[in-house]
Amino acid sequence: MADVYVSWDEYHRLIEKLAVKIDRSGWQFHQIVCLAKGGLRVGDILCRLFRQPLAILYAASYGGQNQQIRGELTISSNLAMIEAKLDSPLLLVDDLVDSGITLQKTSILLQEKYGITNIKTAVIWYKAASIIKPDYYVEYYPDNPWIHQPFERYELITPKDLLD
């Protein structure tokens, strides 16, 4: 399949569709954990819509040219949050699930390190190659296209480039 290109308007519309799916499910949660960097915007919008506290967990596995080469997964040892502790049930969000390894390993970390017993996952894009199926998603891809998100351009430029 050809690469998929997403505009800012489409990106926000997809996050809103994800919020509607979660809301219609009737599942109630007390906190959102988003995976940075890709899940930051998703988590931010969902925490505003659902009026639930947001925690941020940094996980990275892509690097190289254009940030398109998958490497070893690195997960931060700490969460950034205002609350004193995480609370179950918890919604774990990211922008997409590609291999599924990040969602799987961060779910395990949240259970083992923070004692979270009730976790559901939400992403915009779900690819068939994933080893896990997210609880909530908007678009499913039976193949493995590269999804170009609107903020990716900032990984290819510097502040000096903005002056021109």
Describe the 3D structure.
By secondary structure, this protein is an alpha/beta fold. It has one domain (7-142): Rossmann fold. It contains four helices and ten strands, in the order βαβαββββαββββα. A five-stranded mixed beta sheet has the order 4-3-2-5-7, sandwiched between helices. Strands 6-8-9 form a three-stranded parallel beta sheet. A two-stranded parallel ribbon has the order 1-10. The longest helix is centred in the first third of the chain and has 18 residues, at 8-25. The radius of gyration is 16 Å and the shape is globular. The protein starts with a strand and ends with a helix. 27% of the residues are buried. The model has no long low-confidence stretch (mean pLDDT 93).
Question: What are the main properties of this structure?
Answer:
164 residues; alpha/beta; Rossmann fold; five-stranded mixed β-sheet; three-stranded parallel β-sheet; 10 strands; 29% helix
Q: What are the SSEs and their pairings?
A:
Layout: E1 4-5, H1 8-25, E2 31-36, H2 40-50, E3 54-63, E4 69-75, E5 90-93, E6 96-97, H3 101-114, E7 119-122, E8 125-127, E9 139-141, E10 147-148, H4 159-163
Parallel strand pairs: 1-10, 2-3, 2-5, 5-7, 6-8, 8-9
Antiparallel strand pairs: 3-4
